[in-house]
Amino acid sequence: MLEDESSLAKHRKVLSIVGFGGLGKTTLAREVYRKIQGHFHCQAFVSVSQKPNVKKIMKDLISQLPCKEDFAKGIDTWDEAKCIVKIKELLQDKRYLIVIDDIWSISAWNAIKYAFPENDFSSRIVATTRIVDVARSCCLDGNGRMYEIEALSDLHSKILFFKRIFGLEDRCPDVLKQISNKILKKCGGLPLAIITISSLLATKPVVKDEWERVRRSICSALDKGRSLDGMNSILSLSYNDLSPNLKSCLLYLSIYPEDYVIVRDILVRRWIAEAFISEERGQSKQEVAENHFYELINKSMVQPVEIGYDGKACACQVHDMMLELIISKSVEDNFISLAGHSQTDLVNHHGLIRRLSVQHIDQELASILANEDLSHVRSLTVTASTCIKHLPMLVRFEALRVLEFQNCESLNKYDMNGIDKLFQLNYLSFRATDMSKLPSGIVKLYGLETLDIRDT
């Protein structure tokens, strides 16, 4: 990435990392980013996902790049084209490092690539994708290189597996070595599969019968090569091993978009507001909820990010393969109803709507919601929606305990009348919206415990 003796050394270069889901593309990109970022004037790491919001991606980039205080003035009114022009202007005279994670289509790459100028400062772009054609497209300018990430070897699979369970790679009892080989064969060299299963086994008695039971529970699909069915089998096994409380806490994460950074303190407060958490063994609800958060990390159900000085994660992310699983479980159990998400649609739901997550609302979706019974909705989460005015009136959500608007543009155009009738509301967030004045009805929300108005 840094050393190049050719005459093209100063040209901008693209490295595209391609491979099956769960192979560690994002982990590799993050490690490269961490190791070399000090050689560049500026750097940023952004995720694209299956349903890219180009404007949001551009705003995320700008938020990570050094710029003058008034550079981003009026950014909420910029369209995609202006965002791209402004980023190009910002990067034109700098050596930059940009990681673009999880690109799903050539069109998504084409929509954002013009923001990154060819400026002969030896700038670097790292892109990750599951799709070979997308990886090739990222490298088409002649200064690119495609790296196809491979599955772990048998040796490295064992090292990862045993270190997660025993702390050291050579501490596996002889009686478990044969069954370990059979389990690892099913994992197919996929780091995500190995970490998930080893995290599960780390909580089990170190006895052959227990490990044999886990081996039998894993679908044999991975024996014949990497497959989504096989990976889902392994993730499902770990999910099914969770306690009921932890299952609810994990399923709740399906309200968030793909690649979303979920802040611990916000999530903990939401779990408490949803009544998922009870005091136990002399611990407060806050302490129990935080323990649940770290337990999900320790079981490798979510991935830690933003590690603090104390070594604890301040936030987490859900791997896209795990997200697909918990969305499927949430919809199947009618735990959460999704609207405007790429994976599913509100029209597929059954039963009462109890928790509603909206990522994009337009006139069509508004018409569907208009015909739904919303009186049983306990939580409403609206994320990064631009047409918020189409959302039904708040008076229709009379049972709300949790109400969150986040990164919603033009929220000040939404009619907040009726918010004073939400007598059960415990948690209210206008974080990162354009709200300039709080609704007067908030003073009548006597049960409100959390009001988040950061970055408004």
UniProtKB/TrEMBL annotation:
Domain Disease resistance R13L4/SHOC-2-like LRR: 376-456
Name of a matching Pfam family: NB-ARC
UniProt keyword Repeat present: yes
Cross-referenced InterPro entries: Apaf_helical (IPR042197), Disease_R_plants (IPR044974), LRR_dom_sf (IPR032675), LRR_R13L4/SHOC2-like (IPR055414), NB-ARC (IPR002182), P-loop_NTPase (IPR027417), WH-like_DNA-bd_sf (IPR036388), WHD_DRP (IPR058922)
Domain annotation Disease resistance protein winged helix: ranges: 255-326
Gene Ontology terms, MF aspect: ADP binding
Boundaries of every NB-ARC domain copy: 10-161
Coiled-coil boundaries: none
GO biological process: defense response to bacterium; innate immune response-activating signaling pathway; plant-type hypersensitive response
UniProt keyword annotations, A-Z: Plant defense, Repeat
Signal peptide range: none
Annotated Gene3D superfamilies: Helical domain of apoptotic protease-activating factors (1.10.8.430), P-loop containing nucleotide triphosphate hydrolases (3.40.50.300), Ribonuclease Inhibitor (3.80.10.10), Winged helix-like DNA-binding domain superfamily/Winged helix DNA-binding domain (1.10.10.10)
Name recorded for this polypeptide: Uncharacterized protein
